[in-house]
Design goal:
By secondary structure, the protein is of the alpha/beta class. The chain has helices at 26-37, 53-60, 87-92, 111-121, 134-141, 155-164, 219-226, 238-251; strands at 12-18, 41-47, 65-70, 84-85, 97-101, 104-108, 126-130, 147-152, 171-174, 181-182, 188-191, 201-203, 207-210, 230-232.
Length: 253
């Protein structure tokens, strides 16, 4: 952004697409970086309902917008509109950043690498992962160096998931309402599920993560508060997420 915050024909425009993009700090944080670095670029928050997501991204191909960050609630909902995808997007089934090139949308993935770095920063090695969503697959594909245990309410589905990602001798565990679960032996827990209540968890590790934003209900956040445990969300990692996104935007890939 230039000193007058004006957009010219040369300004690189990027969107931040989410249901409540306007209340997220993502655009403000990255625009501050653009200004500090003297880049002629600007990120625009775009409040988009899920029903309008495909239409918005399709029209982006012919617009002056150079790409967009996709908020966490939509990362598995945009694959059909992409013209090209990175290997990680194809393998995981999720995408959180798109670039426009020759009227085509190219999808990539960066947020899981930021999450992995956050785990390394707290020296976490033993990780409990709940759910089998695309986030789980992406994390698994990039989880080199972690000792991961998987939790899901359906063991057959969990076993099928481990086959899909070619995990041998995976530590799989059932997680259900009727159970009593102690997760304090782990360094961190990652929730990538749709579990509505974690009342079955009696103890949490020193830190709990999910990729929910402040407008999404987080059952993990609720349980962490009840158990007086530390919790981190997508919004809590925005500085790190925006730093990595900035580098990708400036490079143009």
């Amino acid at each position: 952004m230039n000193e007058s915050n004006q957009i010219s024909s040369q300004t690189k425009l990027f969107g931040f697409i989410g249901e409540y993009a306007g209340v997220s700090r993502f655009s403000a944080v990255i625009n501050k970086t653009f200004k500090k670095k003297g880049d002629d670029a600007m990120m625009i928050p775009m409040n988009i309902r899920e029903d309008d997501l495909y239409f918005t991204l399709s029209n982006m191909k012919k617009s002056q917008v150079d790409g967009a960050i996709i908020s966490s609630e939509y990362t598995d909902a945009i694959l059909d509109v992409l013209d090209e995808s990175s290997a990680m997007v194809k393998e995981s089934g999720m995408c959180d950043i798109v670039f426009k090139k020759d009227d085509k949308l190219i999808g990539d993935l960066f947020s899981i690498r930021v999450l992995n770095e956050a785990l390394k920063d707290i020296v976490a090695t033993k990780i409990a992962v709940i759910g089998i969503k695309p986030y789980t697959k992406a994390f698994t594909l990039l989880s080199c160096g972690f000792e991961v245990s998987y939790f899901h309410d359906n063991l057959e589905e969990l076993m099928e998931f481990t086959k899909q990602v070619q995990l041998k001798n995976a530590d799989i565990n059932r997680l259900a309402d009727s159970m009593s679960v102690d997760m304090s032996k782990f360094d961190a827990v990652l929730d990538f599920s749709d579990v509505e209540s974690f009342d079955m968890i009696e103890k949490l590790p020193k830190i709990s993560f999910d990729m929910k934003n402040s407008k999404q209900f987080s059952s993990l956040k609720k349980r962490a508060k009840e158990l007086d445990a530390r919790y981190m969300s997508y919004d809590d990692m925005i500085e790190n997420l925006s730093a990595v996104a900035y580098k990708k935007i400036i490079k143009g890939q």
